[in-house]
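Dear H.,

Thanks for agreeing to be a second pair of eyes. The structure we're designing against is below in token form, covering all 393 positions.
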């Protein structure tokens, strides 16, 4: 994409956020739109596919602090965008009104230059130094990609290995990413010698700008690949294997380095972030590395004490209940919680809760009456009784 096309895009508008949106707001908007327009969810829908590519491109720029800064600087320099490209008339370009050519400003005239010309221009304007390694020469890092998976509670505790199917920009399978038709190869640019840069001297100053012949790539493609049209990147479906570590938390992100969108011009690929959603368990809960469980017990078990059997995720354990245990007490079973890869081991926390029958009759009812008569002189709430007495109740 040429710099002229690049600055004419409204990336904030594509994501539906304001220009002062936070990184979290940008990410939230991207995730929502990407899910709505994902090719897997809209098979055969060309408009949804176009929107998916547009929001992915916008997120690739606005999620990268350096790229976003360059983009914002360009908006401030050239206006707010529009049909003609940031405040310039729609006919502006080579041969446009007054002969004003944005290609002259950005050092490129066609597709594929991306951020190269813009980055160098902004670098010269704002005093950025790179020891000669400009944006055009070092290429453009691939955008990060985020996707979601849902796993069971037990898989989150023990860890799991899952296949992950993605439809996203990836290295073109036809040309292998070099942009040339199979059987041909890009050739070294004879003008810049493969550096992608042309250095010009003006008095005591020297300025580097992207080579116009190769648009800063360093190579020239005479016969572009029919699949990616010379870009080296195409949207395709791929299957990855993601390893979920033991003890992963709900909504936690797992980073797969280099599995995002491929870079351009030899730059590294972005990263893939897998956000994990954990289904709740019908019996167990979680508190950090500890597993939690609420076990119903009889009143007599708390008063007299005894031994109860409690399930764990893998088996079961016997747990001693001391006589006179209060309702709601939490007993700890060491080492039966979540074991993480760093060696930390959680416990099983057992909350005892009295089960109150909805109806009591027969011998049980008679026994309860006798018990009530026996403990009639015992006041279970002396503080409240004293307060009521003070108030004349």
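And this is the sequence the design step returned. I haven't edited it by hand at all.
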């Amino acid at each position: 994409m040429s710099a002229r096309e690049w600055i004419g895009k409204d990336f904030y508008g594509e994501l539906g956020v304001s220009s002062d949106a936070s990184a979290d707001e940008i990410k939230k908007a991207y995730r929502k739109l990407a899910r709505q327009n994902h090719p897997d969810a809209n098979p055969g829908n060309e408009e949804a596919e176009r929107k998916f590519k547009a929001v992915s491109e916008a997120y690739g720029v606005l999620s990268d602090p350096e790229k976003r800064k360059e983009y914002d600087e360009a908006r401030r320099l050239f206006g707010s965008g529009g049909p003609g490209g940031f405040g310039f008339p729609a006919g502006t370009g080579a041969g446009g009104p007054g002969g004003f050519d944005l290609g002259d400003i950005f050092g490129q005239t066609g597709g594929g230059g991306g951020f190269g010309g813009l980055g160098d221009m902004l670098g010269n304007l704002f005093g950025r130094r790179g020891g000669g390694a400009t944006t055009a020469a070092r290429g453009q890092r691939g955008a990060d990609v985020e996707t979601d998976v849902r796993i069971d509670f037990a898989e989150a505790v023990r860890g799991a290995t899952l296949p992950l199917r993605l439809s996203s920009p990836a290295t073109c399978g036809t040309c292998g990413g070099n942009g040339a038709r199979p059987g041909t190869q890009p050739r070294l640019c004879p003008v810049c010698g493969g550096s992608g840069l042309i250095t010009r001297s003006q008095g005591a100053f020297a300025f580097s700008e992207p080579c116009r012949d190769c648009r800063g790539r360093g190579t020239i493609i005479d016969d572009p690949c029919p699949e990616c049209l010379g870009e080296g990147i195409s949207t395709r479906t791929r299957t990855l294997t993601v390893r979920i570590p033991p003890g992963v938390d709900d909504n936690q992100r797992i980073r797969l380095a280099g599995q995002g969108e491929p870079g351009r011009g030899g730059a590294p690929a972005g990263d893939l972030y897998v956000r994990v959603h954990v289904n709740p368990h019908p019996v167990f809960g979680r508190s950090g590395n500890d597993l939690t469980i609420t076990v119903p017990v009889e009143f007599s078990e708390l008063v007299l004490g005894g031994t109860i059997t409690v399930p764990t995720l893998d088996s079961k354990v016997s747990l001693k209940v001391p006589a006179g245990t209060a309702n709601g007490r939490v007993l700890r079973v060491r080492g039966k919680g979540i074991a993480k890869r760093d060696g930390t081991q959680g416990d099983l926390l057992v909350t005892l809760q009295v089960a109150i029958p909805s109806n009591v009759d027969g011998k049980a009812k008679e026994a309860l009456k006798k018990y009530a008569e026996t403990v009639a002189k015992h006041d279970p709430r002396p503080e409240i009784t004293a307060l009521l007495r003070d108030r004349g109740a």
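Two observations from my side: The chain has twelve helices and 15 strands. Residues 46-62 form the longest helix (17 residues).

Warmly,
E.
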